């Protein structure tokens, strides 16, 4: 019986998986999948799917063919046409089922739906380091690791049990079998071998809707990259006329204003990667989201910093341009011109939430 229930549950999860895949674009554009995110699980609202189960009736209510009525009588009265003037009902309505998926399952669904290639890491690939911690005791070992208290306690216990302990002359002399030694236990800890830098324009021309688009897209990019590495570090940079590193909450909730100087973000990203994430040991990704409005005199510095300092370090640089009613959008053309000579650059336009899925596919379809 237990095996049958497990088989039915697995079948149910396949149905849920298919439902999510068929509505992936809707879930992404509405941001439903990031509504309830835990450490390893994501709750996804899936309507109109319920796991079949037995429902028991009231005791003594009878069985099949039991009860009042004549042969041929309908089991229920026909529905009457209403006039639309009835009172408000008090019965509960339909509910939405929240299904929990692991981040690995979520990444698999994304990869299958968008036909994404697997990322091919460079440098230190899935490096695992071994850490030793002295958390146990053994009967043998080097004298440098001898545990004094454990050894003394064992010797005292032995002398008392054998009658060799004299309270008037409390001399405890450990013998060879009394000695106890500290012992290390090796644990494997995966290193974070990938770092993703998210840069976002927060100048006055960027609206809350554009920032929400960035949040949704960053979640899905994270999901896919984490599926290919044992650990991922993330760096968040916001900029207007100046750039600064912030935490994740500030990145997604900040409200700034002012002008735009994109070169400050590229310069800060380069300094952070140089200081903390050497390209020989890390797989580095950078994504910049902006409405494309930038000071014209700042553009040459942006392109120089990007091509000469950032790109040599990066597996991938993605520039996503969201449409704002206040931005000029001309920066997209300058970055897009570089793609012919720099295949690690990918540019996308994200005019609205419906375009998020296409932007993600363009960024991650390189398999870098």
Describe the structure.
- The two termini are 47 Å apart.
- The protein has a six-stranded mixed beta sheet with strand order 8-7-6-9-10-11.
- Helix 3 crosses helix 5.
- It folds into three domains: 69 residues, no CATH class; 59 residues, no CATH class; 171 residues, 3-Layer(aba) Sandwich (Rossmann fold), CATH 3.40.50.
- The chain is an alpha/beta fold and 368 residues long.
- It is built from ten helices and eleven strands.
How far do the termini sit from each other? Answer: 47 Å
Order of helices and strands: HHEEEHEHEEHEEHHEHEHEH
What is the makeup of the main sheet? Answer: 6 strands, mixed
- Quickly name the level 1 CATH class of the largest domain: Alpha Beta
Here the CATH topology of the largest domain equals Rossmann fold
Number of domains: 3
**If classified by CATH, what would the architecture of the largest domain be?**
3-Layer(aba) Sandwich
Specify Rg, calculated over alpha carbons. Answer: 32 Å
The residue ranges in which pLDDT falls below 50 over 5 or more consecutive positions are 47-51
CATH superfamily of the largest domain: von Willebrand factor, type A domain
The general outline is flat
The averaged pLDDT comes out at 78
Backbone structural class: alpha/beta
Q: Give the helix proportion (percent range).
A: 25-40%
Number of helices: 10
Order of the strands making up the biggest sheet: 8-7-6-9-10-11
Strand tally:
11
